[in-house]
Amino acid sequence: MEHIVSLCKRRGFIFQNSEIYGGINGFWDYGPVGVTLKNNVKKFWWESIVDHRRDVVGVDTTIIAHPETWRASGHVASFSDPMVDCRLCKGRYREDQIEKDDAGNYICPTNKCKGDFTEARAFNLMFRTFVGAQEENTAEAYLRPETCQSIFTQFKNVLTVSRQKIPFGIAQIGKSFRNEITPRNFTFRSREFEQMELEFFVKPDAGIQKEWYEYWKNTRYQWYQDLGIKKEKLHLRDHEKDELAHYASACVDVEYDFPFGRSELEGVADRGNYDLNQHIQFSKKDLSFFNQEANEKYVPAVIEASAGCDRTVLTVLCDAYDEDEIGGEKRVVMRFAPHIAPIQLAILPLSKKLAEPSMKVEADLRKEFKTDYDDAGSIGKRYRRQDEIGTPFCVTYDFDSESDGKVTIRDRDTTKQDRIAITEIRNYTLENMQRKA
Ligand code: ATP
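# adenosine-5'-triphosphate complex -> structure
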């Protein structure tokens, strides 16, 4: 994991937020190649969930909602972790994350003290803030801990304007905030993060719910493979009955084998019509669906697919990371699938004197591919940099290119080089992207 964290900083994928002030725990910034990678992941999700489907529409709702939202959802009362404080070192820890010794006593995670713990207390994970000029309880609001609640509160509006009929879904990508007690494992558990959530509304009927639950479970599992993640590292873990929320009838986690262990990427759940019913009860508004053809009215059940964007990016980074040896030299190479690689084609002139014609080649390709232009330093060093940011193809423009109209194109994974016509770069790249995908 340290290798990945260090590469992320060295090449501009992910930086610690406020690093010059010593950082702030649980907050991370994406650098130039990181933001492109993250955008590619979001775009791939949005296309497969919204753009390519007739039965899902998107929304973009605010981070702060009416506080009643969080009373209805249950977050005010129970979105908390049981916490214990160590009286000796003053550390505060999540009870379920502290190890116990053979005698059943907690071992203080700092290892600096033997540990003398308080009883467990609930600690609410929502960040609080104030809306308006007055800092009093009536103005108190929360930063959303998940993006889906506004999908539920806007359900009726979206249903009316989108002319959708059940079954259909509403999707959203956006920031969520949780005051996690122990942010850790790089971006895996952050305090500010992005979610990609789908709420798919179906008729409340055990058979129909099960059918759609199975459908989304398989569709989402396949999505990670299509993203380019190795299948053998992806797993589906069905929740045991005692793990399920009281209103949920089924839940499955998509998990990945991270360097720090197998962990959750996404949860797919059949939540019944609990959420809409809660908002109906608290708002006293009718959020039911009326099916004219069948002349029936009901509160839809929902199948939720809730994915973490930052966790997916971390998965992509861990999955792509590789070290090999080329000509006796060790190199680090990020083997991203070309469709999500931050840079797909790098144009590297052999000499700065060739800047003008090679920039022209790059400008042309930029219309279709994500490109980079780099003329600084030795060609070996430039290749190494491109390997570390996962660029699948590097084009070298040399002095012969001027006369023969050809360039050398190098494959990231095999380092094999081909001499091809400048006019062929586009086709070559498209064909070989396909092959790698
Ligand atoms: P965990 O058990 O890891 O805290 P959770 O089960 O509470 O996660 P959900 O509430 O189901 O998570 O959130 C859905 C998704 O949002 C998760 O699968 C994860 O990808 C992402 N997510 C949740 N909390 C965080 C976090 N603190 N940092 C980054 N991503 C998160």
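# post-check
The chain has two domains: 2-65+155-317, 343-436.
Residues 206-227 form the longest helix (22 residues).
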